[in-house]
Design brief:
The complex is a heterodimer of chains A (247) and B (332).
Chain A (H helix, E strand, L loop, with lengths): L6 E6 L5 E7 L2 E8 L9 H15 L6 E7 L5 H18 L3 E4 L1 H13 L6 E6 L5 E6 L10 E3 L4 H14 L6 E3 L1 H5 L1 H6 L3 E2 L11 H10 L18 H6 L6
Chain B lengths: L5 E6 L4 E8 L2 E9 L1 H5 L6 H23 L8 E7 L3 H17 L4 E5 H7 L12 E6 L4 E8 L2 E7 L5 H11 L6 H9 L12 H4 L8 H47 L5 E5 L6 H14 L2 E4 L2 H4 L4 H7 L18
The chains are: A alpha/beta (247), B alpha/beta (332).
The complex binds zinc ion.
């Protein structure tokens, strides 16, 4: 039975890490999380595709890949686009269906595993730059309670009370948070009565096995349906002023 | 190894999402999804807006090019992609997509310089031009005078020191309330105006070198407009447009003329978006006729940014075999 089972390939480039995994029947065949070198920019464009090819190889080649899960953010705009352009094009070239994976929900699965308590709320918080965070609240199984939001970390408490509703009001314990935004805005999270995992805890980083888990259960379809979640309109004037032409 | 056979190329360096299929000098498909309307309201290209549109359009544009060429991915022999120069975020969408398409099919991939692409547009049908020739590329992103001795390279003998010619036209059009892109808008408005109505600086056209400069021209236009006031600008819009266009065309063709006289050039190629300008074409034709040089006007669809020109450049470039290109970045 497992001989005919197809592999699930999953990738995400919405955080600073390049995260790639391949699974068969819930068992990880290879997983990698490639962080930028200290002081360097993320390695999305240089490391992602080579790691995908290595994962596919570990799973027995492209003919064994049954679906591709692609991280859709929210997260770094450039990384997000590299990940989606790569995943969609692979799916297009191999005629493989694709599944969009909400990046913060994959992160929340790691928090839920760390909490080990099905009643504990899990808050995934990614650094959104410009002194803002991307945040999304999940239940103890990692299922979303709110949609993803972009906000000023000083407003986290109000947002939780508002968007989290009775789930937050009735909870016995404060939500448990992790992610790059949680590390950076620990003080704001404290003020919002959210507990944050210790710096350096692995749950702050996205894990390939959680991408594969969501990719396996999501609805697979045409790769063109995989769309990024930006949560912000392009600030035209700002971008016009610092036109980043490379010449 | 050279990129050979049927080539699928992708170009996303600025605001057009492009894919093309080329077989030798023959263009089988050349699909351009222009974003001009999205950028019009800003009077210029907004990089983040461009990158978002590229991501939306990339795979559909590749599909459309394959369908138009009547080939499947299985019939593609090599791929090509623009690696730079251009907007970094925009380039990365095309580079990521091209790398993934090529890798999944184990195809070789050629990384092409965008300007080499503009030069290589002349190698495509109809009427392919063979080196040696002088190539003037003038667009919103570049103003370049190239000496083309071979298929796989060129020597820059003149370039802009500040704004590109098309960029200057865009800025002038914005100042005159004529819309975006500026080139066609200025040309339209200029038809009812007198090119000598306003005296604009010609210092750069008289400069003995081959480089270009358009920022002084723009500043001069700003001063004229300020003197005239809003009502005056509205009244003299056609004359202002005609005078500005004449100054831009005058500088481009003065340098072209000087370059032609500096060597033995049997032919001239005119490319880039600004090459569609009527007065520029007329003046260049006269200059070439006087010297017995052939003038090649690159077809309009190969003048503006497109992927067929990238495939054309790839025909004469080294292509990296799988898996050498997996770690490629955009070239900055
Ligand atoms: Zn160009």
């Amino acid at each position: 039975m497992s001989g005919s089972e197809r592999n699930v390939l999953a990738l995400d480039a919405a955080t600073d890490d390049v995260v790639v995994g391949i699974a068969r029947g819930g068992r990880m065949l290879r997983e990698a999380s490639i962080a930028p070198s200290a002081g360097e920019r993320p390695r999305h464009s240089t490391a992602l595709l080579a790691e995908i090819e290595a994962a596919v190889e570990a799973g027995g080649g492209w003919s064994r890949v049954g679906r591709i899960g692609i991280g859709i953010g929210p997260g770094s705009y450039t990384g997000l686009r590299i990940g989606i352009a790569t995943g969609r094009s692979l799916a297009q070239a191999r005629g493989i269906p694709a599944v969009g994976i909400p990046t913060l929900t994959a992160l929340a699965l790691g928090i839920a595993a760390r909490a080990g308590d099905p009643s504990r709320l899990c808050l995934a918080v990614a650094d959104a730059r410009r002194a803002e965070v991307f945040a999304q609240l999940h239940d103890g199984s990692g299922a979303p309670i709110t949609g993803p939001a972009v906000l000023d970390p000083a407003r986290l408490g109000d947002w939780l009370a508002d968007a989290g509703g009775s789930a937050v009001a009735d909870a016995d314990e404060p939500p448990l948070s992790a992610g790059s935004g949680a590390v950076r805005f620990r003080r704001e999270l404290d003020a919002a009565r959210v507990e944050t995992l210790a710096d350096g805890d692995p749950a702050h980083r996205l894990a390939a096995r959680h991408l594969c888990l969501l990719a396996a259960s999501g609805e697979a379809g045409s790769p063109e349906r995989i769309l990024p979640v930006y949560l912000r309109e392009p600030d035209a004037r700002r971008w016009l002023e610092r036109d980043n032409r490379t010449t | 190894m050279k990129a050979a056979g049927v080539i699928l190329a992708i170009e996303t360096s600025c605001d057009d999402t492009c894919a093309a299929v080329v077989d030798g000098p023959r263009v089988l498909a050349n699909v351009v999804s222009s974003q001009a309307e999205f950028h019009a309201s800003y009077g210029g290209v907004v990089p983040e807006v461009a990158s978002r549109h590229h991501l939306e359009l990339l795979n559909p544009v590749v599909d459309a090019a394959l369908a138009q060429a009547g080939v499947g991915l299985g019939e593609i022999d090599s791929m090509a992609v623009t690696r730079g120069p251009g907007l970094i975020g925009a380039l990365l969408v095309g580079v990521s997509g091209a790398k993934a398409l090529a890798a999944a099919r184990r195809l070789p991939l050629a990384g092409v310089d965008h300007l080499q692409g503009h030069v290589a547009a002349s190698f495509l049908e109809p009427d392919p031009l063979e080196p040696p020739f002088l190539c003037l590329v003038a667009s919103g992103g570049h103003t370049l005078l190239a000496a083309v001795e071979d298929h796989d390279g060129f020597e820059t003998i003149g370039q802009t020191l500040d704004d590109a010619a098309g960029e200057a036209l865009d800025k002038a059009a914005r100042l005159l309330g004529l819309g975006f892109p500026g080139g066609p808008a200025i040309e339209r408005a200029a038809r009812d105006g007198y090119p000598e109505a306003f005296e604009l600086p010609v210092a750069m056209a008289r400069d003995p070198g081959l480089d270009f400069s358009f920022s002084g021209l723009k500043t001069a236009l700003v001063y004229r407009a300020r003197e005239l006031g809003d009502a005056g600008v509205a009244e003299r819009r056609a004359d202002l447009a005609a005078s500005f266009q004449a100054a831009v065309v005058g500088q481009l063709t003065a340098k072209l003329e000087r370059a032609l006289d500096g060597g033995e050039w049997p032919a001239v190629s005119l490319g880039g978006g600004v090459a569609a300008n009527g007065p520029l074409r007329e003046r260049a034709a006269a200059i070439c006729a006087e010297r017995g040089a052939r003038l090649k006007l690159v077809a309009p669809e190969l003048c503006t940014d497109n992927a067929a020109m990238i495939a054309s450049a790839a025909r004469f470039a080294e292509a990296a075999p799988y898996p050498e290109y997996l770690g490629w970045d955009a070239r900055t």
